[in-house]
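Before surveying the methods themselves, it helps to consider a single example record, giving the amino acid sequence and backbone structure tokens:
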Amino acid sequence: MIGLLEVSARQTAPSRRRVLWGLTLLAAAVMVAPADAQIPQPGALQTRPGQFPVEPEEPVKKPNLAERNNITPKPLMTLKEEKEFAKIRKFDYPTALRSQNPTKAEEDTIRAGIRDRVYRMTLPENWSNIANLRHDLVDDIDRIAGDSRGRSRTIALNSAVTHLSELLSDQPEIVKLNAILLLGELNEKNSVYQGAIVSKPAVPHTAAAEPLAQVVQSSDQPTSVKVVAVRGLSRLLKDGSLPRAVRDQVGKVLVNELHAATTAAQAGDNWYQERIIDALGMMNEPRNSIQEPLVVDALWATMLNESLPWHLRTQAARSLSQIRFDGNFNVGLISHEIVNLCGKMTAQYNQRPDLPYWRECFTDLYFAFRPQTKQEIQSGWGLNQQVTGASLRSHAGMVDGAYQQVLKLVNGAMAKDPAQPVSNETLREVAAWMRSNNPTDQKLHPQAKTVEAIQKALAPQTEPTTAVSQKNTTGPTRE
């Protein structure tokens, strides 16, 4: 016991010395101070003789994103309500999401939690962090609800679509954009992994297709908002399980929008048209349920339209090659016209081979024959792969010959660094192949017009090819 006290005394001795030293200094200060001196009180203003007291400055509030950009927010909840949501977010809300068989009270909690997740995006205080808010909602559904909790996940997804749709009309653009992005990110099923590699992509939520399509066809929405909606529809068409009627409706909306965007195109809008063309390539079916080849005809006309920039036409060729054609379609004619397009483009490329956008144009035409990824191979994309099937095998010779010609031009344009013009000898070889392999049937399908008739119909609305080529040398805006 004595030993413990000695240790304690040794440990506390420095503390006692510090206290005594402090008291000594305080006593000395009191002794030297004048009798009438006033000891300053905590918080009192400190001044020197001859100076006026200065009030301490209040901390300056930093303007939020809305204030910095003169945006008028339209919040659907208050900061106080957001704090209330934070309380249920810790326990009740995730517990309800994890429920295998949610009660009525838990269903209401899920709906309220998803609603507040969405409404938080309308608070301007959250806009600098709005991408994380999107991620939080997707994470709630994918990770907490998960694949094994069917009813809880369905309630959460449907509630998300309902409340996100509220943000598509009367909100600032930053809110609209993120609501549309989130609609395209909602998943019915999570991705399947083999190790760290995605073997099967997540399945997007079918119900998101309707509000996204409404955004695309609305004349009140700006292009910057529409392009995000098109990307969401593209994912739904590619990885989703949309019913045939919904797919047909989405295809019709995209075709109509492509026509409208092409007719009223302005400088800088090409990137929007390209997104539509890319999305149409995800349709798979060459005809709708009433046997109309709307998507195929739209892509074919785009590819043949000499008034359009090169990158739109090459994207149309690539998108066409992703449609699952049957024996009624003349894929040999498609391949021959791709060579024609590639040859004319190469002649233009030779004038300015240093322009950066040529690379993507040439690779689009290459991938129109050979799929780029493992998933594309599994999906049957690419003309070379399509003609291995029985219904299109008669076109295999034409398609392979066309591929060899495109390969010459692509290698000629991309094999050297820095880029060099393709040789005239190569161009002559390709031209000779085209003359000796000109298809006798110039219709893509029995109901279609001939290539010449399509281009003639487009000609009155277009400029001459030379003028178009000069216009395109500035390069498209890539995203």
The beta strands are 187-189, 192-194, 197-200, 203-204. The chain is about 60% helix and 5% strand. The mean pLDDT is 86. The radius of gyration is 34 Å.
